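Design request, tokens follow.
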């Protein structure tokens, strides 16, 4: 068995198909992760070069190992895709043929208890993908006022029980700082009166709370907004932007951005409806169940 952490790239065939016409160009994989999509693109397109960005130093190191065989065709940069312009300037590239982003977190990050991303493995309430600084989930859970916490849960992940959950968090934290993922998951389950052990096919009651906190800690919607704004400036004419999202708020942002730009004659939509995984992929890779891929082509370069 290999020591490289496992993460099965979602909608892999569809990503390869949509970026396949860009064989002799540079693609920026904004979320290189463990290098899954990047490896497939490099394998299928022998003249393609990939600039891979990620905020997570561990994933970048894994991608580096995995993609080492492609030599100078790969450049990896520790950067937030919100700073796409700056990251590309840093490697001396102004225009690219493709911008790809596969949002969210990798299976390896979810499984890493130290990151505190999962309610299934106990760990500190951290949730930062970029551990160089910034607020942790514990800072939010212990520091925000009840109303602000409820708003965060509702706005980020449409948690309908946000008020009840925030109230319970505030009651419990009076007895001591909330620091553990499993403790938070239990508390959320008790706040909404659901026993996770008997949920029969429904999602764990803490799923939305964890997603909302992760999104807030990492500023995920703001980063996506900045990526969508910079992508057309960085693409050359005929270049493609493809975004895989896992969440209705993100998918809506991508849909609206692409639609507005297509009405303005800037983009041509290559996916009128988002591409979703087929039954086989969904059964083999549960992460793919909520994945949506939208792709657009730049009609007029800068
Ligand atoms: C779903 S994984 C990508 C997996 C990758 N496509 C693969 O096949 O291995 C998402 C990755 O994006 C990274 N990430 C999330 N938000 C980011 C951001 N704003 N800027 C750069 N990387 C980010 C995460 O650290 C994670 O490694």
């Amino acid at each position: 068995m290999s020591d490289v952490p496992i993460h099965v790239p979602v909608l892999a065939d569809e990503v390869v198909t949509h970026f396949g016409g860009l064989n002799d160009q540079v693609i920026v994989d904004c979320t290189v992760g463990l290098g899954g999509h990047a490896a497939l693109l490099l394998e299928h397109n022998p003249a393609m070069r990939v600039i891979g960005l990620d905020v997570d130093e561990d994933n970048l190191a894994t991608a580096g190992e995995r993609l080492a065989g492609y030599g100078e065709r790969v450049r990896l940069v520790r950067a937030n895709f919100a700073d796409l312009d700056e990251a590309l300037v840093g490697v001396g590239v102004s225009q690219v043929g493709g911008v790809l982003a596969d949002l969210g977190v990798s299976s390896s990050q979810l499984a890493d208890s130290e990151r505190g991303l999962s309610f299934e493995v106990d760990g500190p309430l951290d949730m930062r993908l970029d551990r160089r600084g910034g607020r942790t989930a514990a800072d939010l859970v212990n520091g925000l006022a009840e109303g602000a916490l409820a708003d965060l849960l509702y706005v980020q992940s449409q948690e309908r029980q946000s008020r009840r959950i925030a109230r319970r968090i505030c009651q419990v934290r009076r007895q001591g700082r909330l620091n553990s993922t499993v403790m938070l998951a239990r508390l959320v389950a008790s706040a909404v009166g659901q026993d996770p052990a008997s949920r029969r096919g429904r999602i764990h009651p803490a799923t939305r709370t964890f997603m909302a906190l992760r999104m807030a800690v990492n500023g995920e919607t703001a980063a996506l907004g900045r990526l969508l704004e910079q992508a057309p400036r960085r693409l050359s004419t005929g270049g493609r932007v493809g975004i895989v999202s896992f969440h209705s708020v993100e998918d809506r942002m991508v849909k609206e951005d692409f639609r507005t730009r297509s009405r303005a004659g800037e983009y041509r939509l290559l996916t009128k409806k988002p591409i979703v995984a087929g039954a086989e992929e969904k059964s083999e890779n549960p992460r793919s169940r909520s994945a949506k891929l939208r792709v657009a082509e730049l009609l007029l370069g800068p």
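Comment from the thread starter after seeing the answer: thanks! The mean pLDDT is 94.
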